[in-house]
Amino acid sequence: MAYFQSKPTSGRHFLQIPGPSNTPDRVLRAMDYPTMDHRGPDFGRFGKQLLEKLRGVFKTSQPVVVFPASGTGAWEAALANTLSPGDRVLMCETGWFAHLWQELAGKLGLKPELIETDWRRGADVAAIEAALREDKAHGIKAVCVVHNETSTGATSRIAAVRKAIDAAGHPALLLVDTISGLASIDYRHDEWGVDVTIAGSQKGLMLPPGLSFNAISQKALKAAEGAGIPRSYWDWRPMLAANAQGFFPSTPATNLLYGLDAAIDMLMEEGLDNVFARHDRFAEATRRAVRAWGLEVQVEVPGEYSSVLTAVRLPEGHSANALRATILEKFNMSLGNGLGRLNDRVFRIGHLGDFGPLQLVGTLGGVEMGLGAAGVPHKPGGVQAAMAYLNGNA
Amino acid sequence: MAYFQSKPTSGRHFLQIPGPSNTPDRVLRAMDYPTMDHRGPDFGRFGKQLLEKLRGVFKTSQPVVVFPASGTGAWEAALANTLSPGDRVLMCETGWFAHLWQELAGKLGLKPELIETDWRRGADVAAIEAALREDKAHGIKAVCVVHNETSTGATSRIAAVRKAIDAAGHPALLLVDTISGLASIDYRHDEWGVDVTIAGSQKGLMLPPGLSFNAISQKALKAAEGAGIPRSYWDWRPMLAANAQGFFPSTPATNLLYGLDAAIDMLMEEGLDNVFARHDRFAEATRRAVRAWGLEVQVEVPGEYSSVLTAVRLPEGHSANALRATILEKFNMSLGNGLGRLNDRVFRIGHLGDFGPLQLVGTLGGVEMGLGAAGVPHKPGGVQAAMAYLNGNA
Amino acid sequence: MAYFQSKPTSGRHFLQIPGPSNTPDRVLRAMDYPTMDHRGPDFGRFGKQLLEKLRGVFKTSQPVVVFPASGTGAWEAALANTLSPGDRVLMCETGWFAHLWQELAGKLGLKPELIETDWRRGADVAAIEAALREDKAHGIKAVCVVHNETSTGATSRIAAVRKAIDAAGHPALLLVDTISGLASIDYRHDEWGVDVTIAGSQKGLMLPPGLSFNAISQKALKAAEGAGIPRSYWDWRPMLAANAQGFFPSTPATNLLYGLDAAIDMLMEEGLDNVFARHDRFAEATRRAVRAWGLEVQVEVPGEYSSVLTAVRLPEGHSANALRATILEKFNMSLGNGLGRLNDRVFRIGHLGDFGPLQLVGTLGGVEMGLGAAGVPHKPGGVQAAMAYLNGNA
Amino acid sequence: MAYFQSKPTSGRHFLQIPGPSNTPDRVLRAMDYPTMDHRGPDFGRFGKQLLEKLRGVFKTSQPVVVFPASGTGAWEAALANTLSPGDRVLMCETGWFAHLWQELAGKLGLKPELIETDWRRGADVAAIEAALREDKAHGIKAVCVVHNETSTGATSRIAAVRKAIDAAGHPALLLVDTISGLASIDYRHDEWGVDVTIAGSQKGLMLPPGLSFNAISQKALKAAEGAGIPRSYWDWRPMLAANAQGFFPSTPATNLLYGLDAAIDMLMEEGLDNVFARHDRFAEATRRAVRAWGLEVQVEVPGEYSSVLTAVRLPEGHSANALRATILEKFNMSLGNGLGRLNDRVFRIGHLGDFGPLQLVGTLGGVEMGLGAAGVPHKPGGVQAAMAYLNGNA
Prior knowledge:
Number of domains of chain A: 2
Protein name (chains A, B, C, D): Aminotransferase class V-fold PLP-dependent enzyme
Binding site for substrate (chains A, B, C, D): 348
Order of helices and strands of chain A: HEHHEHEHEHEEEHEEEHHHHEEHEEHH
Shape of chain A: globular
Domain Aminotransferase class V (chains A, B, C, D): 15-318
GO molecular function, one term (chains A, B, C, D): alanine-glyoxylate transaminase activity
Largest sheet of chain A: 7 strands, mixed
Distance between the termini of chain A: 45 Å
Strand content of chain A: 15-25%
Radius of gyration of chain A: 21 Å
CATH superfamily of the largest domain in chain A: Type I PLP-dependent aspartate aminotransferase-like (Major domain)
Structural class of chain A: alpha/beta
Oligomer: homotetramer
Mean pLDDT of chain A: 96
Cofactor (chains A, B, C, D): pyridoxal 5'-phosphate
Strand order of the largest sheet of chain A: 2-10-9-8-5-3-4
């Protein structure tokens, strides 16, 4: 099986893309149990408990539904369940994933209106408020924001977006993609008044890809009754009906659900606040390394740095993709590529999920050695700077 | 973790529903490897090889696409990629899953026209031909048939359906659901002239649920260009573009793909013809057991018996669900329930996937003992009859 | 890897030898965790808890030591820790394993004295008592009995042996091999006054082979101080010293200990009495099948039937090994061979460990079909008889 | 299960003791397959192939036997099979493990004669030759050397020892412990004329502990015929007889053998020479880090540095155990403790087995941060020095 034999005995691969993250052994082993009858009483008990536990991760007391699908499926579900063809949606183009979301909206017959950024910061909250205030007729049906933009490493201030919508007195729904943010950085579906939260399994939840999520407010549920985009697979209504007894309308991805159960247990044993603090600490250490190398972090606004990943800009005339290829070849580490307009301009370091301080040191070491091996101008000392911070001596 | 602790030390659970089938250890262990970078060069090589191997299972040289989704998702993909709102589709209601497909078509804005059956046989080929001959204007855009109806245990003669369409000189597409048939019973996407084949991972492919498939003819690909149902997640076009290099447009369910790779290897090592013969043999043994008990097989047409599962009718006044509960409680075996109008009237024995003769004897023993324990009138000797057949002494 | 590819996709192998038994998934998955530092604080805590839990399985409050070794190693440990070259030991030759034990004693320089049987019953308690009464000089230093003779399926009455020793007023140590009995049938180290109990991992404890055990009375510990057989690896003293803190004097088989921990949890969740009752029930069902076939159980004394395995005699002129080869080839089931003088005369059915009623029905079905396929004269109906008993209708 | 829950979600544990080493997933997954019949034909084929493959790792065409036991068991086997009580054996006390070996020899009734060292170098070859020359009567029956002394990180020059024995014209057997050396650093059983090689599973072979090995010369086999230490479990003769058909005289540790099979495949895919070069490179990088910190490597002779592990001396007045506790607590890494007279004076860094460059950087980073956190005087820059070397810029 080629996928695990390509580098025999050369030690553990460092999977430092910003998701899928490193799946812990406990989750992999949970997934390795025999599939069970998804319509039997044991499954019903399991499903009910799991769906209940899942709410804790989103900090919500409202329903969370699970699709066997990638995160883009959960995006489609969010739009298809709440909107109708021709509806206007306000979208904040914070990066590549926000861009993809807008494309998706177009394919479903929606009319996206873009608030652009330079891909070096989070969503422009003031611009959102302004656009909504201007929309006296309330033609805008939803505001779509990416909480953690995986292509740039910028976070958007969701609580502030909520406040802006309220300040404008606008009834638009708030749809938030936290696919790469959930369970790595603070997220509060209820407190922040999000209507639909979109998430995936392969990031902070530490699972392999294959599951995605919608957390759903009462307002969104009500919108679902009148939404006009044709839908079946993504339809929340049969899902919620079956979920009430712990079941699913079509066959669920049982073994991934086993893994989800184990992953939530791990997160809760560590404590979500500890998980977030760990990510914050590793992200700060990473940025210190980047600066010590004399390189630039893609995000320019300190309050909007992501603790999930750090995108690093290469000096003009140097190829991020060549650097990544060198690091993969020589040091057995995968880093994230630049997406869209950032292709070859940045590389992305994932420091999320089941990840500890020495894995981070190894990761930064791989980057530092790779910069040397690939001939990218830089100063040594990044790892040293990160260690100094991690050790409380910064 | 409740899902594997409910029956401590009482031996291996018999998962004899008609899918998910028993996942072999080799597939589970393959899935238990660390997730890899789905955009890296190792994945590209792996993906290309896997997609190529996958064609062999469908007996096609045309593309097969893989969705992280349940089988119903692959249904939606088949319809959404080839049809437009308002299109008429001819559907054969062979049982519950055919019924669900028709509901789904309605939700997408299509106009299903039903050819009904009594749920005790495959699709009515003559009726299909008649309907198409009558449709001189070629308003019918697709004929939808379930190859292996999991709710009844009836197979439909797909080659004959193809012939009927051709005999009628009708240009309708032929869409076939072989979710529970593929890799258990003979199926030939190319030779039978199927335009879209719909399949899932958790049956003959011996995987946990979470992946589904479309095999796609050139004619279907062409239809995709003009199809008008809004689609994004299910859209074949970006999928095929990425697949050409072994990649996927959104994050694939990597660990399930590892399992798929192992499962195809197992099928090919045994040989598809041997796999089919094994299923045929176990199905005949099962029917002999049913008859020995004095019970009735749901399907009435010998040429349309499924080798994947056998649905068994209970005598009037007896509850199939009570029987199943007794068997689960006393013998740690899950059987399939009756669906739709067959609820509580039949139970279904899955004899598919990674399944050997002694597992079959145990399965039939559990049914025979359960009939006794639940007070269902029957004659003993079913297991004996099955063993006589299996041993070549029938 | 040849060991799991030889029968691709033909379903689960039935491992019905009388040990190694079928290892449950939960135990295999526990063993699949990364090895930990066997000298670190986490291990110390784990080791202490595990050694404490382990006592419950032996029904003792005295020490139990664990060797990375097969069961024969634990035999050697029992003798080497308590005896000196030239010591006389009274041994009961109940079958092949008792015979091997005697050979082992000879190799260590002991003088075994044999009480023979016809290999169709347990140890002759009256003969033990007589021999001890005759030994006025107390030259006999130990009485060695096999609790569950795996080669014949006979159990010896250990409590009665203890009583016989006491009645004779003899100070000999009582050494008992319950390698294949422990955790399948009742065993009481303390209550029965056993001095050294010898056990292994791969039978009722449901683990793979690789660990073996000595439970040790105070009297045996005292004997260890004066014992003269040179010993190092097997020496209890450094073992007990390290065990006090949860550690081991040389590197323990860490991953097998993980599995042991999981296995004990499973046994305690089911409850040892329930485990024993399950084995008794399956053994009685098996004997009923054997009699229905018109064959003979090797053991002749009903009170000494083992619930762990059943050895079945073949009619004169028929080969048990040919039968076993047929069953392996046609039905993918491994049965135990006849050992020593029983080679080719009996086959042995293991019905121990992680084993449920439908696995038993499949096992007996494989034997019944195999008898037919191999041309061994028999009457059909064995499986039927077993099912009637299992279903409470006998 | 306490052994894997103590540090929830804080990332992967760094197991950097000098064995057990980090077991690769491929080996763990191989061990996770169901146990098979150790007396059946599939096992015979598997066993024969495995025993054959195993010889390649020892670079021998002579037999290699496998015991379910720790490495100390294989020591005992080497002595017990070749020597008789009262025999004189020449032993080189290179460190704690050599010391234990001498203790063991004494327990078996042998008369060890010691050639001491200061535990900072390999065996004194000249002293060996001198002692043998002096032994005109050939009373010394064996020379015992530790190839890779795990307590100090010193290697002994085995080829030179062989030459010394030959130069002295002495018939003593050469017994070599390469428990921690095999499959990490160069070892040649045949070419170096070793009579018994002793090895274990949990070091360079990348397995969990539980298996140990003897590679056996013809001369040693001949000695086994006359050896007088009582032996049964360790006896080579029944082992070799059974091994000829791929079987074992008592139940083998089947699942560990699965892992061994996978591990040998991995080593051979990488190529033993590449494996050795990788270890050499990581060891040199480690020593550069140690020197950059201003600390001292325990071994003083450059030609005798081990590439398996590096023992590092602490400045006077500082506790190596306190340092290790700090590193475990803060950085989730296990390091080896000082043994015997080196307790608390050194800590040992294992850089063996399934180990890559970024794991090494993380490991050294953990040490460097730990030195700071524990207040051990040192200069920063060790990681930097190691990286410079690893990157070819040294």
